Give the backbone structure.
Amino acid sequence: MTLIGVIMGEFLVSKQGIGYLIMYGSQVFNLNLVMSGIILLCIMSTLMYYGIVYLEKKNKKITLEIKTQGFLTLSFFLFVL
């Protein structure tokens, strides 16, 4: 959602970026530029989503390991960080 907010901000005030390219392409009727920007935005959003899913799974696995091993491991883990 943050990425979409940034792009919407670019629609309004920027002089560069994906949002600017989409707005510029729509103003000069360049459909290739508009569609390229939208496809690039979709690819970036998908990659960021799956990156977050991966990090959540990794963090969940670490959290489960810490909970099952007990308080001493948790205190050692926090001390190391």
Notes: The chain has a mean pLDDT of 77.
